[in-house]
């Protein structure tokens, strides 16, 4: 993409808008970020248990051992969701809770937790949306090479069928992977996420094996009778700093290939982009690409999940070191944010979400879309009267919901919106230092308090729109 977007914290004030009938309103979480109970009921260690215990990897040595204690408090949390009026709740299954070593015996107590959670949700009229993998790979699989090893993709397909056999009679929507970009590039490229590997060749092998794992899981789910199959990506618009510069446009195309097309094209077209293959072929042996893999990856899906937080701006800069999470990006510079940012220092540009959705709609026609994550970290905590004013989060979500509505008006088949996140939680390498939730969590007492954004979102859901 070559258009330039002006940074803004929100779109200009407009008249009220209404979303289509049946538009799904939800919220999302992930297992390691909220469950806790890291050593209970037979759960095995994950790469995040190991990584968070490695000195210097996670802020202040924080771990997910307790997190939000959702494993014990799920009934209260589901009641909270019902009070907000959520139609759907997206949660992830902890692979090491279900199969502690990744491939061996199933742990019945682990599956029973998700069985109880599913029933609790349905009892409150909330549709469960299951994500099978949100980064907590069993450590035993990582010891064998993790996602850089083809066997992990094969194990993932088997694990998907195990979970479906337990929950498939009540769960309609199955998401295979969450943000494989992060699993591959942050886990095996830059090493800032678990398992903390810094090896561009392994990062690129992980990309393919994650794609393959999705395909194998989708096949297993479909054969078992799954109604709706999905995958969640975190694509972003990549803009050249100078749209008139051929070198900047080339830089943007390269980063777009590594960020977006390396996942979208094999998933939805059954092929890797030629320019991306040429690029990664200069960096690593492509022998991990086997005959038949692309056919497996290119399984029909019923909805594509989009996690969106911010765009990227890049320019050609000879001598620039590039970024470890984009293998082979030497000579490319990433522009720092030029406008308002969240507590993660991520730029706030709602218009870029509209552009992204319309681009995917145009380039991959016939694919229904769902916003499966969108939200912002801001540090506001309880005030003296016990309330949690967080107007900046309200403004952020308002702007991005209007961007979604603009995409709908442009003809995009957008089915719903899941806010990230239901509650403050363990924010990966940032530990408990960053708060994305619309519900404030006191990690000492585990008290939950609705932020102003939660009350606002409840009204958005009630209205099916914005004032």
From TrEMBL:
Keyword Hydrolase in record: yes
Protein family (similarity comment): Belongs to the glycosyl hydrolase 1 family.
EC numbers on record: 3.2.1.21
Annotated Gene Ontology cellular component terms: cytosol
Keyword annotations of the record: Carbohydrate metabolism, Cellulose degradation, Glycosidase, Hydrolase, Polysaccharide degradation
Active site: 179, 373
Chain sites annotated for binding substrate: 33, 134, 178, 309, 420, 427-428
InterPro entries: GH (IPR017853), GH_1_N_CS (IPR033132), Glyco_hydro_1 (IPR001360), Glyco_hydro_1_beta-glucosidase (IPR017736)
Gene Ontology biological-process annotations: cellulose catabolic process
Protein name, as recorded: Beta-glucosidase
Catalytically driven reaction(s): Hydrolysis of terminal, non-reducing beta-D-glucosyl residues with release of beta-D-glucose
PROSITE patterns, per the entry: GLYCOSYL_HYDROL_F1_2
Taxonomic superkingdom: Bacteria
A molecular-function term among this protein's GO annotations: beta-glucosidase activity
């Amino acid at each position: 993409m070559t258009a330039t977007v002006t940074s803004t914290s929100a779109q200009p004030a407009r008249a009220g808008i209404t979303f289509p009938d049946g538009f799904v309103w939800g919220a999302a979480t992930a297992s390691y970020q909220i469950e806790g109970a890291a050593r209970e009921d037979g759960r095995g260690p994950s790469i995040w248990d190991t990584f968070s215990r490695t000195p210097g990897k996670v802020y202040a040595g924080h771990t997910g051992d307790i997190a939000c204690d959702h494993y014990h408090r799920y009934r209260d949390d589901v009641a909270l969701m019902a009070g907000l009026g959520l139609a759907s709740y997206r949660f992830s299954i902890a692979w090491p809770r279900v199969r502690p070593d990744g491939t061996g015996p199933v742990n019945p107590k682990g599956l029973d937790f998700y069985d109880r959670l599913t029933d609790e949700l349905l009892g409150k009229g909330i549709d469960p949306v299951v994500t099978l993998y949100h980064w907590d790979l069993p450590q035993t699989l990582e010891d064998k090479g993790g996602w850089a090893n083809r066997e992990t993709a094969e194990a993932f397909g088997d694990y998907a069928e195990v979970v479906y056999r337990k929950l498939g009679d009540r769960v309609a929507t199955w998401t295979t992977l969450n943000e494989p970009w992060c699993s591959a590039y942050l886990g095996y490229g830059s090493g800032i996420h678990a398992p903390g590997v810094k090896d561009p060749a392994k990062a690129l092998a992980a990309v393919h094996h994650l794609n393959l794992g999705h395909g194998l899981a989708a096949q297993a789910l479909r054969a078992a009778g799954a109604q709706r199959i999905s995958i969640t990506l975190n694509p972003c618009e990549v803009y050249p700093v100078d749209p008139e510069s051929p070198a900047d446009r080339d830089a943007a195309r390269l980063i777009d290939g590594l960020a977006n097309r390396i996942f979208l094209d094999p998933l939805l077209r059954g092929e890797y982009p030629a320019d991306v293959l040429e690029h990664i072929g200069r960096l690593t042996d492509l022998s991990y690409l086997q005959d038949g893999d692309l056919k497996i990856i290119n399984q029909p899906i019923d909805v594509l999940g989009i996690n969106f937080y911010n765009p990227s701006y890049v320019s050609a800069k000879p001598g620039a070191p590039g970024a470890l999470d984009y293998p082979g990006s030497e000579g490319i510079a990433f522009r720092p944010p030029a406008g308002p940012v969240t507590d993660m220092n991520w730029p706030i540009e709602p218009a870029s979400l509209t552009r992204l959705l319309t681009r995917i709609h145009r380039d991959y026609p016939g694919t229904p879309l769902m916003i499966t994550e969108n939200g912002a970290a801001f540090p506001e905590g309880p005030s003296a009267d016990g309330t949690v004013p967080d107007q900046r989060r309200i403004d952020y979500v308002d702007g991005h919901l209007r961007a979604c509505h603009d995409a709908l008006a442009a003809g995009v088949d957008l089915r719903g919106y899941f806010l990230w996140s239901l509650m403050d939680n363990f924010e990966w390498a940032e530990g408990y230092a960053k708060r994305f939730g619309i519900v404030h969590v006191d990690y000492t007492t585990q008290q939950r308090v609705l932020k102003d954004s939660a009350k606002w979102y409840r009204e958005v859901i009630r209205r099916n729109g914005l004032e």
